[in-house]
Amino acid sequence: MVARDPDAIEFVLHEARENDVKFIRLWFTDILGNLKGFAITVEELEGALRRGMGFDGSSIEGFARSDERDLYAMPDPNTFSILPWRPRTNAVARIFCDIVTPDEQPFEGDSRAVLRRNLERASSMGYTYYVGPEMEYFYFKDSSGTEPLDHGSYFDQDATDVSTDLRRQTVLMLEELGIPVESSHHEVAPSQHEIDLRHTDALTMADTVMTYRLVVKEIARQNGCYATFMPKPITSVNGSGMHTHQSLFKGEKNAFYADDDENKLSEVAKYFVAGLMRHAREITSVTNQWVNSYKRLVPQFEAPTFVTWATVNRADLIRVPAFKAGREESRRIEYRSPDPACNPYLAFSVMLAAGLEGIVKKYDLPPPVQSNVYEMSEVEREDLGIELLPRNLWEAIQITESSKLVREALGEQVFNSFIENKMIEWERYHSNVADHEVSRYLPLL
Q1: What is the pLDDT of residues 89-102, one digit of tens each?
Q2: Averaged pLDDT of the chain
Q3: The pTM is what?
C-alpha cells in the first residue's frame, strides 16, 4: 500500500478544523476517466486517512470482478483542498484517493495505481516525468445544443465578452485550489477557450486535470451556461485538444536538454520521441478514447493525422518548441494528438511507457518533416515511412488490442476492461442511425 506521511495526515486534520470543514468528498476516477466519489463527515476523516473507507466497487466501471466487490478508498493527504464554490460555513473539501483491496494492496483496476506503477518504472531509471497539458474546451448556451457564447477567434481580447469573464473566474478558482495557471486565451474556434497549467509531475497533473474539468464546468453552471470537453462538438471548426508538453528530469537537471545538438535535444529526448512515434498508433485509443475523438483528428483543422515530428509545423504529431537561451530547464516535446476527454492517468501512462521504451531500446529517430505532410503524395509519404494515425475508434481498438506495450503499461485488468468498454461504445455507435443519415438519405431513398 502507498505509505502515508503522519505529518501530512496531521496537517489535513488541522486544516479541516481551522476552516470549519464538515464534509469531505473522497474522489477517484473510473477506467473511462469519469470522476467518482462519495462524501464523509469530518468526524470520519481521521479514520479514513489512516485506514481508508470501504465501498462496493461492483457498480464502478471496470472496478470489480464478479468475485471481488469490497474495495477501500485510501485518501492521499497531499491532495486535500477546500472547494471554494461551496459555503464557507460547514465547508466542503476534496481529497483524491488510491483504491486498495481489503488486504491493503493497490487495486489493479485503479487508474491512479496504473500511473503510479509507470512512474515507478521511470523512477527506477532515474527519471521524474513532468507534463504540462494545454486544455481546450467550448462554452455553449446549454447542454442541448452548440449555440456559442461568443464569436471570437485566436487570442481575441474582448473585455465585454461573457466568455472572457468565465475564463477569468475559472483561473481565480483554480488558483484558490492551489493549482498554478500559466496562461489563458481564446482559441481558434468561436466560443473555444484554453487554460494552460504550469507543468508538474504527472501524478499531480492527472489529479489536476480531473479538478480542472470540474471547475470549468462548475463556473459555467453558476453562470447559466454549459462547458464541454467533447473533442469535436461542431463539424466546421477546430476541435479541442490536450496538447501535452513532456520532459524527463534527473534530479534538478532536464534530461531532454543537450547544448551540442542543433535542436538542443539530448539523446534521451530523441529516444523518447522515437518511442512515442513507434508506438503512437498503439496508444491512440487511450489518448483519444471516444468515437467523437476521431472527428477531430482530420486534415485542415490543426490536429495531427500522421505520425511525424517537426520543430515548427503545428499539424505534426510531435512538435519540438523553439529553444530560447537561458531556458535549458524548459526543454520539452509536445505531443499533440490527445484530447481533453481522455482519462489523464491512463493517457500519461501510455505516453510515458512509449517514451521509456524508446530510451531502453534506443530507437532511431527519423528526420523531422521539413515540408507540409498534407501536400505530399501518398507515394512520397510511404517512401519516408510516414504512418497514419488511426482514422476511427474501431481501427484504434484493433491496433491497441495487439499491443504488448499498452497491455503492460495498463496492466491486465485495466487493459481488458478498457478494450471491452471501447468495443461496446463502437458497436453502439456503429448500429445507431445518425441525423446526418436521415437528412441525407431519407429524401433520396
Answers
A1: 999 999 999 999 98
A2: 92
A3: 0.95
Based on its alpha-carbon atoms, the radius of gyration of the chain, rounded to whole angstroms, reads: 22
Using DSSP, state whether 339 is helix, strand or coil: coil
Q: CB-based contacts of 409: which residues, under 8 Å, 6+ apart?
A: 114, 118, 349, 350, 352, 353
Closest CA to 193 of 248, 119, 137: 137
pLDDT-based confidence at 322, cuts 50/70/90? confident
- b/e sequence 2-13, b meaning 16+ C-beta within 10 Å: eebeeeebeebb
Which domains, and CATH codes, for the chain?
6-107 (3.10.20.70), 116-432 (3.30.590.10)
The DSSP string of 368-435 is PP-S-GGGS-HHHHHHTTPPBPPSSHHHHHHHHHT-HHHHHHH-HHHHHHHHHHHHHHHHHHHHS--H
CA distance 74 to 47: 10
Q: Which residue has the cell 467523437?
A: 292
Residue 274 CA to residue 268 CA, distance in Å, equals 10
Q: Which three cell numbers stand for residue 413?
A: 485488468
Could you tell me which residues are beta bridge partners of residue 243?
134
In terms of Cβ atoms closer than 10 Å to its own Cβ (0-12, 13-18, 19+), residue 183 is: exposed
Residues 180-211 pLDDT 10s: 999 999 999 999 999 999 999 999 999 999 99
d(CA 234, CA 271): 37
pLDDT at position 63 is 63
